Amino acid sequence: MHDLPNCPKCNSEYTYEDGLLLICPECAHEWTLELENEKNEDDKVIRDSNGNELNDGDSVTVIKDLKVKGSSSAIKMGTKVKNIRLVDGDHNIDCKIDGFGAMKLKSEFVKKI
Q: Where is each Protein YjdM N-terminal domain found (predicted)?
């Protein structure tokens, strides 16, 4: 049929082109294909809580106390984590934390040092 993307606002499949704009007839949202392409490139970049881009080998600091599943203790705010590794998934940081061992963290709970 057509290979236009679904509406980013309501996920409607009935989008149509009007010049350079893409329009959703269900929610009246308008956007451009250029914006859609930039969004897809940004999805691959993992950012910390301040919006800084994270890379493999970076050092980060935990910004809030994090409960550890299956443990009575928590990772305290300000804990420094060295040599992180970025992975796909909900918890997108693989690391080792002293006193806890191997952990997976979400990038929204850390800031780059």
A: 4-32
Counting every residue written for the chain, the total comes to 113
Separation of alpha carbons 48 and 17, rounded Å: 35
Helix (H, G, I), strand (E, B) or coil at 35: helix
Read off the pLDDT of residues 39-92 as tens digits, 9 standing for 90 and up: 555 557 899 999 999 999 999 999 999 998 888 889 999 999 999 999 988 899
E strands of the chain, at which residues?
Answer: 16-18, 21-23, 30-32, 60-62, 66-67, 74-75, 80-81, 85-86, 93-97, 101-105, 110-112
Class of residue 75 by CB neighbours under 10 A (exposed 0-12, middle 13-18, buried 19+)? buried
Q: What digits encode the pLDDT tens for the residues 57-72?
A: 999 999 999 998 888 8
Task: Give Cα separations from 106 to 38, 55, 92 (angstroms).
Answer: 23, 14, 6
